[in-house]
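Quick start: load a record and inspect it. Here is Replication restart protein PriA:
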Amino acid sequence: METKFVDVILPLPVPRPYTYRVPKDWNEKICEGARVLVQFGKKKIYTAIIYKIHHTPPQHYRAKYLSELVDEFPIVQPNQIELWRWIADYYMCSLGEVMAAALPAGLKVSSETIIMLNHHMEIDFDQLTDREYLIAEALESNEKLTMQEVSDILQLKTVYPIVQGLIAKQIILIEEVVKERYKPKMNDFVTLSPNYQSEEQLKQAFDELSNAPKQMHVLMKLLQLGKTPPEKVEAVKKTTLQKEAQASSAQVKALAEKGIIEIESLEVGRLPSYQSEPGEKQLNEEQQAALESIEAQFEESRKPVLLQGVTGSGKTELYIKLIQKTLDSGRQALYLLPEIALTTQIISRLEKHFGDQILVYHSKFNAQERVEIWQKLLKTEQPKLILGARSAIFLPMNNLGLTIVDEEHEQSFKQYDPAPRYNARDTAVVLSAMHKANMLLGSATPSIESRFNAHSGKYGYAFMGSRHGSAQMPDMEVVDLREQYRKKKMKTHFGEPLYEAVKKALSNKEQVILFQNRRGFSPFVQCNTCGWTPECKNCDVTLTYHKFLQKLKCHYCGYNIPHPKTCPACGSPEVQLKGFGTEKIESDIEIYFPEARIKRMDLDSTRGKNAHQQIINELETGEIDILVGTQMITKGLDFEKVSVVGILNADLMLNFQDFRAHERAFQLMTQVAGRAGRKDRRGKVFIQTFDPDHPVIKQVKKHNYDAMYNVQDHERLNFHYPPYYRLIKLTVVHHDKDLVLNGSNELAGMLRRILGDRILGPEYPAVARIKNKYHRQILIKLEKQLHLGKTKEQVASLITDFNLMDNFKSVRVIVDVDPV
Ligand code: ADP
Ligand code: ZN
Ligand code: ZN
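Running the structure step on this input writes:
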């Protein structure tokens, strides 16, 4: 028999698949897409994916034998590898880098892996093999073990199968950057206890309760709400039961203590069917027309369709209809959202319709949970709705019929670090085409690129211009800050109109959202005498003041120092706080509205466990009166009692040196404004600015997306930016400043020789030093007519040549295709 060889993908930035020799015994067992363990480098062991099986030994090296066979079936499907291939080509990275991003950590154990005990699992030691037992025991006394240590304990060279086995049994976990466990919202539910489900038993219960009329009433209500007959009584939400029976929590508990009922904490959304909203929602006329148009366009061609619908127009309702049809036809649906918008609000709304057909894939899930989802999908062709953030595009899908990218304008669909620097929205277009699936992009404020594609006919298009029902678009008021200052009407951050509106809203028991763009508004300290400002020692940035920590902190590397009492430069005690971030605003507002319950939502306040979700819950249940926040608050949330939204200072959003600054400012302000007023109450939005005549301010005020688009379209064409030109950004990085300077000049020169004036720079970016590494950027602008694939190959090979030069061997070049 001829010797078999396999090309494998290693989860590393190596340029091409690597070839190994297959031990004869495994000839019949290996298959493409399965995992194997291989030795790479001196001592390292990695999980690799079989890419190709063939009979050709490599030319330049002696192939090593595969170390271990992990699966005897593909864990990665051919269509997934095809997608990886596309990502690697398009985003100019290696297949291995794509694999590293695509496979959950639990599926790619390597010699670098560190294992620990899964404390959520009760270990049944009798079920373990002797070797497994030894590892589990060792982990009881050592918190963590490296693969080498496991090897030493077992006195065995190949320990991976045993470790894999323990992972499969959920006894051990792989260490990862500690992530918060995603926690769904829980509620207490009441059911009839199993001991009281027959007529006689119930009769007995009522007898027992003859001297506790209130409890008897609760029981009756439960039977009524949970619907008779008794053996079918379904769970009723505890608070609903209390309300209906006009009973207290203690009275319900008393019944539980008697063993008649049971109280159980259940995930909200996984409600018994009758608890979901009554009936299907009837689409309104505009929605129905949009739905029909979208479906007709799906029928006609496989083009993606852009659905532009103002906030509250019912885009989500359309998604639900389209998903339902897809599932009914026996195919899967993929629903992508920005991570931050993936809240229980949207999850439970979808769960009401699709119940346990939903699989949520969240970055806050731990490695084990992600492996489970992966394996579940591998095994099933059943209709499923997969709901996730950008990395959900990597899940195995057998039968994809529909992809939805919601909030498609969001830049967070693009991954910046590490490679693959992919845009999940654009990759989803390719994924859908591969599966011959329909594709819908949705937004109230589409990206210029997508809107352009719809104009040019590359995408289809549908539009919804009004909010559902009697809900109106919010009333927009521009507040001229110059005038407010001149007339001395400012109360710190509030011009008079906003201040009065907040006061009124609070007295009406309505909620307020205040928006402050984070960038450029971070508070810092400065010496009033000599002008000294503390800067990060590792990065070229000013340290940001954190009131809560009483510290000055770097947002790039985390470096921090205590808040100085005196100026270290001149000794003056006049060290003062300048600028204002959300934290400062929060404390200032307390002065004007001491009664109000104020919360802040920004990167810092949401770092903790479930903090983001918690703030949303509190806003929903009315425990917050004023929410102060950054971009985070703009994402897909729907609160009925928010009547006032204030954009505290619109100007800094507009004044960025970025060709997307105006597009972004428009999107941000429109999305924030969209949080105001739903259903029957018209919301009011205040935009405070020093430049009330700025075109973008006027466009936002008039809800005029088209005006914004037309201006942008014109500018992009004139100044050679997307969608008319494609961009590739190269960043040259090293800790030696001179090397970065010389290297970037050299590289730009090399590029100019083939691409001429399509090359811009090199230039230092706004923050030229991060974590003690210097950065310099080169921008490549390519006209659409140019053969993209070929140009990328040229650029890639120039970078390789550059890195082969003696001087620049250690200089890193980061390639970012379609930077955002
Ligand atoms: P969008 O996703 O465009 O912001 P949503 O789908 O969230 O809009 O709709 C806004 C609100 O209006 C939601 O509370 C939704 O339940 C409600 N709604 C939208 N369409 C309908 C409809 N046809 N019937 C009943 N309620 C609707
Ligand atoms: Zn000083
Ligand atoms: Zn720093």
